[in-house]
Write a structure and sequence with these properties.
Blueprint (H helix, E strand, L loop, with lengths): L1 H38 L3 H6 L13 H11 L7 E12 L2 E10 L2 E9 L7 E2 L3 E2 L4 H7 L8 H4 L19 E3 L5 E3 L7 E8 L3 H16 L5 E8 L3 H11 L5 E4 L13 E5 L5 E6 L5 H14 L1
Parallel strand pairs: 8-9, 9-10
Antiparallel strand pairs: 1-2, 2-3, 3-4, 3-5, 6-7, 8-11, 11-12
């Protein structure tokens, strides 16, 4: 009886392995079709292979996204070559693959998902083999986190900002030499703006944020601006004289320690160190959202 159970188990494993290899083969075939569309500059067809969040999860934006790719790659002859499947899983009833490809003479990865047992696949765009896995999850939220071992040794170890949770302890020195720490700022409302000197939307909203700082003067609120990819010397000597920014500015030394994937990212923390709101990207409504939330927290 025991031998019979072992034989049945081995048979099941063999069947599963065969089925997995079969859906890997289908994923490679469709990935090559996607690459062929890209290489021939048929961007409308190429976009049909992409996971919807590439174009904002809105079918009406697919054509606009294809046009954007066409303009951005005007005259660019770089091609994608599909190499092999590196890893495949079935996770929460979804078939998933990680595919190695060559782009611009470098190894790159493409993630793929199928919701019909491997018949039809959707893929990410080609991306570096080392990247922030949390950033990938914003495009493919259903991915098995076991893929992170291939691309991101820091996954789960970065400083994270999640609404409803306590902020991780921090201690910064701003560009004027003032210490800003989670302990010293307890009892204050903290407003953080993660940004970069190369971020156009960040620069665009600075005058509005400066107005907010002025209106909040004398109140129990601190405005901090951790700057990524922005050396202290460049900030003081070149950037700030041209673009005044009245937050307390911190030059981040190691941006990969933070799970911040777009700029600007605004975070509002209450007097008890709890993250109340987090939102990214420029919007005309950012200022109103910040001010209303801050005023509410100051009254609590």
């Amino acid at each position: 009886m025991k031998k019979s159970n072992i034989l049945v188990s081995l048979l099941l494993i063999s069947v599963l392995m065969f089925a997995q290899k079969d859906f890997e083969k289908g994923a490679i075939i469709q990935a090559r079709q996607m690459a062929k569309s890209f290489n021939s500059q048929d961007y409308k067809k190429y976009v049909d292979y992409l996971v919807p969040l590439n174009y904002g999860n809105n079918p009406d934006f697919k054509e606009k996204f294809a046009e954007m790719l066409k303009r951005g790659r005007n005259g660019d002859t770089a091609t994608i070559k599909i190499v092999k499947c590196v890893k495949s899983v079935i996770y929460n009833n979804q078939n998933q693959v990680l595919i190695l490809n060559r782009y611009r003479n470098s190894d790159n990865y493409i993630f793929g998902i199928s919701n019909d047992k491997g018949k039809n696949w959707l893929f990410t765009q080609s991306m570096p083999t080392k990247m922030n896995f949390d950033g990938i999850l914003t495009t493919v939220p259903t991915l098995d986190t076991s893929f992170s071992t291939f691309v991101d040794s820091k996954y789960g170890k970065r400083i994270n900002y999640e609404t409803g949770k306590k902020v991780d302890s921090f201690k910064y020195t701003d560009i004027q030499g003032k210490i800003l720490s989670s302990d010293s700022l307890k009892g204050k409302v903290i407003v953080m703006n993660f940004w970069s000197i190369s971020c156009g939307p960040c620069i665009k909203e600075m005058p509005e944020l400066n107005e907010l700082v002025t209106r909040m003067k004398g109140k129990n609120v601190v405005f901090m601006a951790p700057a990524f990819y922005s050396p202290k010397e460049v900030l003081i000597t070149n950037f700030l004289p041209a673009h005044p920014f009245n937050y307390q500015i911190v030059s981040i030394e190691n941006d990969d320690d933070y799970n911040v994937n777009s700029f600007p990212t605004h975070i509002i923390i209450d007097k008890n160190s709890k993250i109340i709101d987090k939102f990214d990207g420029y919007s005309p409504d950012n200022l109103k959202r910040l001010e209303q939330t801050i005023e509410k927290l100051l009254k609590d």
